[in-house]
Amino acid sequence: MTLVDPQTAEYTAPDGWVRVCALDDLEVERGRAALLGGTQIALFLLHGPDGAAGRVHAVSNLDPYSHAHVISRGIVGTRQDIPTVASPMYKQVFDLRTGICLDTQGKEPKSLHVWPVAIDDGHVLVRWEGDR
């Protein structure tokens, strides 16, 4: 897990944004967990339209069904053109853009929290309003 310490980063993020890692720290279609304050987030770098690295998504690492911090270890995929991650615990499938559960496996609908992500000069930034 990446621990974010804004005091040690060599990059100054714009107001309201936190540098989480370098884009090169992420692998395509592999989740990574990061800790912002007391909140675990899961980062996913997806394939772009030309097969190169594409968009990064940030969602809560806490699986709302199992209450375990495991979403970063989930299976990345798609439903039609929707980028998804399947929880490794009970296999619920979540939309990485909205956090909505697309396949509840017969349980009540729950969702993941989603944060806006930006890439600036190779740095992955997450829009963050809480404590760092």
Automatic annotation (TrEMBL):
Keywords: 2Fe-2S, Iron, Iron-sulfur, Metal-binding, Nitrate assimilation, Oxidoreductase. Gene3D superfamilies: Rieske [2Fe-2S] iron-sulphur domain. It holds the Pfam family Rieske_2. SUPFAM superfamilies: ISP domain. Residues 18-126 form the Rieske domain. It comes from the Bacteria. CDD domains: Rieske_NirD. This is Nitrite reductase small subunit NirD. The gene is nirD.
